[in-house]
Amino acid sequence: MTRHDIDCEQALRKLFDFIDHELDDDERDAMQHHLGACRSCFSRADFERRLKDKLHELRHVDLEPDADERIRRLLRSF
Amino acid sequence: MAVSRQVFESRVLALLGSLTGVARRLTRNDADAEDLVAATIEHAWRGAETLQCEAAFKGWIFRILHNTFVSDCRRAAARPHCESIDAEESEDDDAFSLFEQMHQPFLLWFSNPEQAFLDKLLREDLERALADLPDHHRLVVVLADLEEFDYAEIAEALAIPIGTVRSRLARARSALQKRLWHQAQAYGLRAEAAETVAGRPQERLT
Fold it and tell me: Which candidate in B15, B34, B142 is best for mutational testing of the A interface (most A CBs within 10 A)?
């Protein structure tokens, strides 16, 4: 195997590290190389990435104006 | 490390949305979340000397948020949903993959059932599955997937090693996918997704 070759088992073990951007450059290159050649692992990675994106869409960070003002008043009191 | 009031204020305001978002997921209640964020900011300001360096501000203040929530829970037995926040893995330890469930050979007749499933997945389905997770699983998913913390930031916020972040996140995602699968079975979503892709009616598959 060349430096870039990993098998499906290795790819699946590193899949979430890949999706979460936790791999180093070499590991990411090896993963991308594998996903480019393996339809099954590519489909799995695509599924997990889309599910992660859908979860991210649940993010709800807007504060009510009253709550925002309460926090700003608190900060000014220090 | 002493941090100036001005720097403290600007860092808090930059993170206020995330602090509120995580607090809402922990308390499941906007009023309690607002109180938790306010208490966190007060504790952080009073303990500003415990901040190692400005770059560590994010992990540091989320650790205070987490600790404040855990302390509040221990004081208020009236919040039964807080019980599992410190729990170690006790359920859903067996790895579960929604993709593998959907990617059955017989379903391959319907092109990409797992992609069709995602297309059909509603916000409410995800909210319900997320809310049903034990607190320690929900929190790690919220930090990683909703708030997009990296593993080092999660480790700092929860005061656990990165290896534990990785394993807890894997178990939490597995538990979440198991709940989505059960919902899909309950609603016949799996069959519906397959029908949509196939373009013709099918008998329920579940």
Answer: B34
Choose from B50-64, B68-82, B181-195 the range with maximum mean pLDDT: B50-64
Q: CB B40: neighbour CB atoms within 10 A?
A: 23
Cβ separation A63–B17 shorter than 8 A: yes
Which pTM was predicted?
0.84
Q: Which of B114, B100, B7, B109 is nearest to B61 (CA)?
A: B7
Q: Could you tell me which of B69, B60, B179, B206 has the C-alpha nearest to residue B125?
A: B179
> Minimum mean pLDDT among A56-60, B115-119, B144-148: which range?
B115-119
A37-68 pLDDT, tens digit each: 999 999 999 999 999 999 999 998 788 889 89
CB contact under 8 A, A60 and B121: no
User: What was the ipTM of the complex prediction?
Assistant: 0.90
Cβ–Cβ gap A20/B144 under 8 Å: yes
How much is the mean pLDDT over chain A? 91
DSSP B134-178: -HHHHHHHIIIIIS---HHHHHHHHT--HHHHHHHHHHHHHHHHH
